[in-house]
Every structure is written in structure tokens, then in C-alpha cells.
# Entry
Amino acid sequence: MKALFTTTVPVEIILAAGITPRDLNNDFITDSTAYNLVEKAEIRGFPRSSCAWIKGLYSVIEEKQHLFNETDIFIAVTEGDCSNARALAEVVQTDFNLKSYIFNYPHSRSTVEMKKEIERFASFLGTTVEKGEAIRKNLIPLREKLKKVDEISWQYPGLIKGIENHLWLVSSSDFNGNPDQFDKEISEFLNEKEKEISNFKPKQNASKIAFFGVPPIFDIYSFMEEKGAVFVFNEIQREFSMIKNAQNLHEQYTNYTYPYSASYRFAEAIKEIKKRNVDGIVHYVQAFCYRQIEQIILEKMNPEIPVVVIEGDKPMNKLDGRIKTRLEAFLETL
# Structure
């Protein structure tokens, strides 16, 4: 039995229920035909002016529906993520006969309300919060390894590539469906990186970059690193990894900044990048997403560190000339 979801939800509850977690975003963006998946959804009837991620998630289910069965569950997050996910849940239920569930992060960021939402989620999946808490404790050593990936990324700038940091942290939303295998793989990765530390020489005069915003629909990291930059912070990906200290599940998912106000998100992120002595910020925004407006708040809260805003729409194998020019000009100003 699998739980397919549109963004981070309490994965501990899913695992406690004996269900395999599957973040459809990871399926979509790692697919070699990701661009075509978006177009397939548009042919199905999804508007051109809707987010490419929503379209990609639909097509992933359509492409892989032979892997799913009537016991699988589709989980959409609306409050705290994307209102389009509600309509997507209805279409998925209609087209593929998958049972759907709406998970909501409380707008108030109240631990009391978060606890109620997690209890409701556990009840739906046929498990208990207590079993979820046991899973949370079991995952602490694994989350410590994710924390180590994040720490090495800024303490030894350039030793871990931006895309490597991105992939490890973003994959922690579902641990690729298998936390034990994920633990083994990240341990091997860290062992290799820790061996390299003693001989590591950072790039001279490299601009240290922080990445803000939702995970990008194309690879910005490799291009900027070719131009001499190093990435020392991935905002939302780091939030997915749940590496902050918490005493219980409702505190863990209340500390998680992504579903809540932009002011709270940016305040937490700015504290972190000041510690990392960041030279510039790439703020990625997805086309047709309300989060584009949040740039206004970031500008007001962050008057000191230069920011370049990059808007993405559909997946692409290589950055187009317009985006390359913006990024190159930004690096030159730094």
C-alpha cells in the first residue's frame, strides 16, 4: 500500500501505518520526460496558466497507474501549500479511482491545532500518534545525517555541490520510500565527503549563494557553479529535512516554515544565512504561483544581501539564454 502526496506531510504517520510514502514531486522532476508530462496534462485539459508542478503530478500518476491499486491513497496539501491541489485531488479520484485525503497545516501555526491535524491524519490511516512518535525517534539518527550534509555544505563551501545538497534534503520528504536504504546511501555519501575534508581547498573568491524559494523545476546550481559560485544554503529543501530540534511531531511540523507565513519563513532563513556569510540570494519562484508575491516581503526584510529573482515554468534540460544572462549579471555584481 502506498501514500502518494503533493508535498511534505508527516511521513512518520505514514510509516507508522505500514504504508510506503511516495512524494510525487520527486517522481516528476527526476523523470527524463518531465517536460512531456506537463504537456500531456495540458492535452488532458489542465490550463496553460496552471502550475507545471500540478500538471506534472497528474501525469506521473497517469503514467504509473499500473503500479497503483485501489488501496493506495492520494494526499493533497491545500492550506499551507497550493489551493490547486484540492482540484487535483478531485480529478485524481475521478480519473484513477484513488481515495484522496486533504491534509492542512493550520494557518495560525498553533501547536494545538497541528496536534489535532496529525491525530486526524493518523486516524484516517488507521494508526496512532504514539506509533508515529516512535517512528520520529527512530528517524532522529537519519535526520542527523541530513543535518551533517547541510553543515558540510556551508562549513566547507563547494565540497558538496548545490545539486547534491538539494537532492539529499528534498528526498527526505519520503526517504525514497525506504528509510533504511536511504540511511545506508547517505551514510556512504557522508563517509566519502568526510574523507575529502582534510585535502579540501575551497575556491578562492567564490561567491557564496543561498537558494530561497520552492525547489526549482530546472537545475540552476550547476550553471552557477560553473561560473565560480558555491551554494551554502537551500531554504525549503532544508525545511523538508526536519533537522531542527523538536520534542514531538506537532512541534516538529509547527517549526517547519514552508506552510506558514512568508514573514516567518524569511525571518528564519535570514538568521541562518547571516551565520553562513552569504554574498547573494537566488530567489526562485514558480510561474502561476501565489508565492511570487512573497518577493515583496523578502525585499523589505532583507535590505542588505543582493537578491536575483528567477521565475521558472516548465522543466528544461538546459537553462535558456534569458535566465543565464540574469544569473551571470547577478554574479558580476557580487
Observations:
- The first helix runs from residue 11 to 16.
- The two ends are 50 Å apart (CA to CA).
